[in-house]
Amino acid sequence: MQKPLILVTNDDGITAPGLRALVRYMKDLGDVIVVAPDSPQSGMGHAITLDNTLYSKRMTIDQINGADEEYSCSGTPADCVKLALQELLKRKPDICISGINHGSNSSINVIYSGTMSAAIEAGIEGIPSIGFSLLDYSWDADFEPAKESIQKIVSEALKNGIPKGVVFNVNIPKLKKNELKGIKICRQARANWKEKFDKRTNPMGKDYYWLTGEFELLDHGEDTDEWALTNGYVSVVPTQFDLTAHHVIQELNTWDLEVMNNGEG
Amino acid sequence: MQKPLILVTNDDGITAPGLRALVRYMKDLGDVIVVAPDSPQSGMGHAITLDNTLYSKRMTIDQINGADEEYSCSGTPADCVKLALQELLKRKPDICISGINHGSNSSINVIYSGTMSAAIEAGIEGIPSIGFSLLDYSWDADFEPAKESIQKIVSEALKNGIPKGVVFNVNIPKLKKNELKGIKICRQARANWKEKFDKRTNPMGKDYYWLTGEFELLDHGEDTDEWALTNGYVSVVPTQFDLTAHHVIQELNTWDLEVMNNGEG
Fold it and tell me: B5-189+221-252 belongs to which CATH class?
């Protein structure tokens, strides 16, 4: 039987330890091809490169236990997936795995996440797809405690398929293996960032800003990803790219949206 | 009575004709403050500037019929909204309007849209918010036929409020005023882009790519934005930033996600 073909990408760049760990974990499950950004792309959201050129380079990062093929790409995470699917891969991958991100993509962070934009791009193109993030920003984060959960989720997704129009946003708490309580299916917690701009003056006398902020949880449900993570669980949020708020369509149809002098007037 | 305070932004940049038209139309409805990118940001998705500085500049573009205040910002559309709300505006705006985009943001394009990322950012911060796009990419597009529909939708949103957690994605067909049939509440059509990468060789002998593609509609429902636009209607899609696919949670809870040797084992 042919082994599953696994496309691996991320937003922290092709040399990030989180991606190198993910490649090792995926090698146990199938053939692995990496197409990842040549530089960090955090906070890129679902950006794509429309008005600039893209470069791609075949390379080998880990001689031992590395991917079957690896390519860096000068674009965003979404660009990497597009280029992989249309140009670099010889056949359609069975699954696309993005990460492991250094840092959380839970709750509202999904909106800003380059890791998840790569996963969503693959989902739009009809490929089962999962983004993984560890709640540890440091470059020397320990990914090993997450290994079994990651392999379990990917194996189940390969076995069952992921529902159409859905990709998984998986976040993993920063805990030791024996502290992890299990895996929970969750909804995205309501939250936002309370921004603070740190205003400074540059050596030429011109004001500039650094964006900083504090995470503000607005949701105390026990079925959310934030609850799961705080309580020691790996959170799996099924995430969709049909953004329609179907539940308000009926209400909006009661609004007065008649326009004068139009084609029916 | 105090006039509504309207924050206007976009992704084509502060000098774009679509934004200048929007400022004129919003001046009929309230006080207008513009905070918009100093350069085009199309395809930026929901990118934010995490590892770089932001600059902002007070300016006046149109002496007559211009905004009450205008600021350019060196960041992305989402950065503009964050900076406006936290630093530049003296009070919370009553509504945030993004656009008018030169080109469509219907169906799956919402995911890549800088115009909509600005609107969604304001929505996350609890501000009623609408993105407008005209299906005409040209810089000298005629926005006048859209004026009445835009003013009608914004007036109704100011009167009724927009449901919590929802922002409007409004697209306008490229038609004469008397050809516009009216305004329709729609759902986002299922669609994707069939990418083609145009591969070339640079003068130094290195291969590079241009991203190009064809829009592929996968949805033939008559309640979609694509149907409305093709049939002469302005489409209004209520768009949400809770990306949870609530309808699959029950099914996913039947998966075997037990992990060995964990905290409960």
Answer: alpha beta
